[in-house]
């Protein structure tokens, strides 16, 4: 009998099969091929509203069955986990119901479109966790090896206390005035624009890497092109010809400053208008003893400056994060053979399966997702109120002890789930 | 009935399951998930000498059955293709037998350990092709999107005539004197060292991108550390402690100069001693109207200099090769989401399946593999004869017509198989 | 008779001889050696409070005479221009008096320590200009060839309308907690910290490159290390040993967001705490048709993304700004031979001499200096008022005509003074 | 009395005033302004064949007098040093005569056009040195701070034993077929093409940085465009229109492999056909404990890989060579303010003045220049003889003692003259 058969199954139902559904499928498929897992993910059911299209997607993506109503899978005994890849406006309803039905939940980011939804989801997750049912939100970039390494190095004190954070998430897919409207430019469907879509990632990474929360913000949101062509269908950026136009109701650019719970100032920008930047998710953390920098356009590299070095030979090191000792990497290829975007989804599946088998809370939890939502909400409120500084009281810790007069006393605990093998 | 079931199957038997076997498995598995294929690859049989270990590998990698003798699969009617991932010294025998048995063959590079073997294999492939049985060699780097784009741009004349080529393949895994002996340092098993292992790749890429052959070489081979520790088992590079030492019988560094069939001078270096270079496979082609440059350490990028630009704003462009129009990329993720090392193996499977379904010769053919082998052989002969320039007569074309007095008249035909779907 | 002698002299008195005095001296000395000037700068008098030290500096730097009171040089008939390189707190008094005495003035940045001083200086410059006496402020980075090229390309419409600006000025010389107090950490002497010292540069460059002004800001200022050692003398960053400590009274980090007069949002950060960043003055401008990016750590390079390119071969171009057609460069060395930090001071001298000879207003004018000061002042007021958005009414143009619904209608006029000879 | 006046003068006569004459003038002018020198260089006489043009050049460049015959300055008592910036074919005669006349000599590279001339010059220098008259050759790139740092780090053992060297010098100014003939494409005047013009630099840097000599080579030389337009005057690359054409009699591309006296293999390429590479002089040294890499297109940076680092955080460090502790840098600007091409000429003047005042042999000596010439000569002979390996017996040391079986036993002595202040 094969080893796979010897492992208990983890039977998954996935709701939605667009971009994120394809990425999650690749994650479930790859996890047991490269990592030694305590249970075997089974791609059991794909849920889509149209049976025909769901069937075709299931064939392509490798799911055994299809359903057309997500409520049906909650009633089935042979489903252990619901993986939610639908638009954000549906997350709260499905996730809450699934948890209530005793199904573990993985929900793609953004966790919700509103703060109220996110709070309800976090509360539901707390209730479910008490009974051993777990919820996780899919901030997959945490599983890029270079980012996991950054977090480990901060936790180990390699750059000392966190002094400053600067983040950018630069894309250019709306920089063309002729790019048509889509659900992503519609506030009713998307909740917000660059802020929630990509700004959410850099807020979560700041939380993840530093082990701290954003404690308050001053923000501004801009919509640079107020009207766009109405596309018959949103199919790429080629719809220059159309004559009908409609309003863009979300932000094109989000900018905010603030500080972390440990006092470090932080600056953030998310934009869809930076011509030439395809997916430049960048984060730099300056500590009291060094710096770390990452850019997703060079995703297998982490830059480290160690201030303890002799000034004569110090400099940012370009760490190629493909060594066996690097997070997740040892399970893949020999040194020097880089990973791609989708590998984060495999690592997400691995970490989730392992946490569930161990009866532990997977991360990022719904509480982590709620923390991001609180920051986005504060940015929106600040932007609507002349950028006035807006506290996030829920993120303020109890008064810190001692006083060194210097920023950065709060240091994260060592990372737990980022090793491969 | 599912689409997959509606497609005719292509039943594969894979021989060997180490590094390359894992990569090929990932290729077969991923191809039908992301590309629209005319037939459905079926991972039918894994062949390994130990039944137990083969069974465990088959479970992990996703193969249905196992065999312990590769000759058995040649006798089976339900196998269409034999995928050979064993050490190079076994390639000739297995490939020749498989072709004779009417099985299509994919053989991992290096095609063979000697020129004589390669010649025999190419002859066998010619005979088989006459009957519709096809052979292909796995120079997978041809399927990195940035490299396929480079080849297309050369073929389109974007950089004019090819004037010069410079290649490096820099690694550092033997730079540590304490790294132990392995089959890769043993001439009997590996054939050669850096020359055949990684030098072969840059020779093939030169052939592929320029559409020309290396016509002659002057070479040198060096073994920088003549003795190394004997490892009880070769398990990483940590065996500094051992006291027994043995000889390294292959080259650590290979350097050669030469020219292409169109007259362009070319320079090559392959080394395992470049501390800090993890997998720096680099190729730069200078043409009469521009230049192209690639480095595998930044594998989603191709650099292009277009000499037709205004000198005031000209400069190497950093093309992020993740746009839908780029080779293979449109089948994966939205723009800006990079691929990794293993995606080349998916593309290899895709191109092979398509060629077989169309009854066409897949590339690189055994003739292409033989061409690389001829260059490696000439380098070895030159290195053994005081670096004297050594012609490769088989690569010399019939006399070119006309005479412009300038290097680079030979331009490759447009690429055929590098688009996704 | 020599050509130099045939040119009318421009006799200069320089006040101050520290870092900036050395740089200005190099500028005056080099200008006539590489550029064809209409008049000949004469390094006539160096002014310093201590006669001995001024004499030693004059010998080293190449000035003919010394004075110990700047008022003396205003009385001399043989001085045409006063070059002010003293600390910012003295600029207003000296510059105003020199202009009143009919001397042209070059004042190093920051133009003044307070907005009131800057306003008085700008008014004095207006009065003087009516009589043909000119004033200029030394934002020398405008004369880095790559930056002058950026400005020209924006003015020519190469990147279309300005849509967004992002700026960083990252240094690390205070990142060490043990770095001692200096005049730069003392608000009474320096006016502000990172904001005025380096933030001023990125504000001026934004004005220069875009041809627009910052129209309003939301800012925050942080002092990360509140107390530092008292150094007996400020001599490098080695004073870890001292036990006496005193307060830092300026900002270590300045962050602000805002928008330009044409509506484009902009984001700025200036810090002295970014370990590993030595002089990373960065500016990126995203337009409707492309992007430009610059980093002073790679000062001979400008990056350009042209959105009109085919998506398949588009990418940021690394323009090496050392071609004869590039601003200022033709007067120096053959293509490919980069310039350094100090060359901006030569170019400044060249542009100033030419403007004076032509009877034209040199740029940046005191009005330009005042514009920067207004932005810094608004940042400080916003930072003191919970980051609330703070308008800069003086920068608001009359209502723009028409309405395209898109940001970026305001385009700068073509550059005037940036070519070499 | 001024300090300058208190220092003894070093009175210089410079022969030639084209590109190199301008660069040397900038060196002599700048040296005493930034460095504390034991004697004061005096720019006394400029020698040129045309009195009018020499006078104009002297005015622009800052020389006091002119002469039209270099022999005249050898007769003058008030000249201490002759600085030779004429074409290479004249170097031997002028240098030999100047040394015989008791004048110190600085001669621009290439030291000579032939090996015989170089040998005669080295012999003359030996004779002169015995009497205290010194000769130096102007391989100025040795004085780029990043390169001087590289040499110091090798000498200190930071990268262990030298295992491999790879060098490229890539330019593109002849890549355009329409670029006209010039003295640089004429063997009679230039001696060779890319080999002697830029290949000489990478050979000298290899000698300098490793402390070893090239011991033998296998080379090839190619002329890619055999005929070019005859320009009425060689004035840039714009002469596409001309119809008359003439032959190119020098190499466009030089490629050679070889090994150092310590046994390390080395690979070299010099080309004028690499479109987009403006002045990419690159050298990488791999040692037993790390690597160093430099590219002149990023001249203020040295990359260092330290193999002693933890593999998890190791990576090439981008050392920004602008710190006070770096060679020469402390005399210029604060940290982070980069230098340019011409600063090497200032450093050359500084090191030469100091060596002469101390009565020491300045470096690179004529013996060092001869060593480069021997390598170039061997490359030409090898290229003319089917690339056969060609020993350079003069560079072979006496048999090394001991035997470790590993390449790289020879380590350079610590550097002497590379510090500023």
Automatic annotation (TrEMBL), chains A, B, C, D:
Residues 387-421 are annotated as: Disordered. Transmembrane segments: none annotated. The lineage of its organism: Bacteria, Bacillati, Actinomycetota, Actinomycetes, Micrococcales. This is Gfo/Idh/MocA family oxidoreductase. It comes from Georgenia subflava. GO terms for molecular function: nucleotide binding; oxidoreductase activity. Gene3D superfamilies: Dihydrodipicolinate Reductase, domain 2, NAD(P)-binding Rossmann-like Domain. Residues 10-128 form the Gfo/Idh/MocA-like oxidoreductase N-terminal domain. Keywords: NAD, Oxidoreductase. Residues 149-292 form the GFO/IDH/MocA-like oxidoreductase domain. It holds the Pfam family GFO_IDH_MocA_C3.
């Amino acid at each position: 009998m094969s080893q796979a058969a010897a492992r208990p199954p983890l039977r998954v139902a996935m709701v939605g099969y667009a971009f994120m559904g394809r990425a999650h499928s690749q994650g479930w498929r790859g996890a047991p091929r490269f990592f030694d897992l305590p249970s075997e993910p089974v791609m059991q059911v794909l849920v889509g509203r149209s049976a025909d299209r769901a069937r075709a997607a299931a064939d392509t993506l490798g799911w055994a069955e299809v359903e057309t109503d997500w409520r049906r899978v909650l009633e089935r005994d042979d489903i252990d986990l619901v993986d939610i890849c639908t638009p954000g406006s549906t997350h709260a309803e499905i996730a809450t119901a699934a948890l209530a039905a005793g199904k573990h939940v993985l929900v793609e980011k953004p966790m919700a479109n509103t703060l109220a939804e996110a709070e309800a989801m976090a509360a539901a997750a707390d209730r479910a966790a008490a009974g051993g049912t777990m919820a996780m939100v899919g901030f997959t970039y945490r599983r890029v090896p270079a980012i996991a390494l950054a977090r480990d190095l901060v936790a180990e004190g390699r750059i000392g206390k966190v002094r400053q954070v600067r983040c950018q998430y630069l894309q250019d897919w709306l920089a063309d005035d002729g790019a048509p409207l889509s659900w992503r430019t519609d506030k009713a469907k998307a909740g917000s624009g660059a802020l929630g879509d990509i700004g959410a990632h850099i807020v979560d990474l700041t939380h993840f890497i530093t082990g701290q929360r954003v404690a308050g913000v001053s923000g501004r949101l801009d919509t640079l092109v107020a009207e766009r062509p109405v596309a018959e269908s949103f199919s790429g950026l080629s719809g220059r010809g159309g004559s009908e136009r409609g309003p863009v109701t979300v932000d094109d650019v989000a900018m905010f400053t603030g500080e972390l719970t440990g006092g470090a100032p932080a600056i953030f920008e998310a934009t869809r208008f930076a011509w030439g930047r395809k997916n430049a998710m960048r984060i730099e953390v300056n500590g009291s003893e060094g710096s770390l920098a990452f850019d997703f356009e060079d995703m297998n590299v982490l830059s480290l400056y160690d201030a303890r070095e002799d000034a004569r030979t110090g400099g940012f090191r370009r760490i190629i994060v493909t060594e066996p000792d690097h997070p997740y990497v040892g399970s893949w290829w020999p040194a020097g053979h880089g990973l791609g975007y989708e590998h984060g989804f495999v690592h997400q599946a691995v970490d989730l399966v392992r946490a569930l088998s161990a009866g532990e809370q997977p991360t990022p939890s719904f509480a982590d997702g709620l923390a991001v939502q609180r920051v986005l909400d504060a940015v929106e409120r600040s932007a609507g109120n002349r950028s006035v500084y807006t506290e996030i009281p829920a993120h303020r810790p109890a008064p810190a002890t001692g006083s060194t007069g210097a920023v950065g006393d709060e240091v994260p605990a060592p990372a737990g789930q980022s090793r491969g093998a």
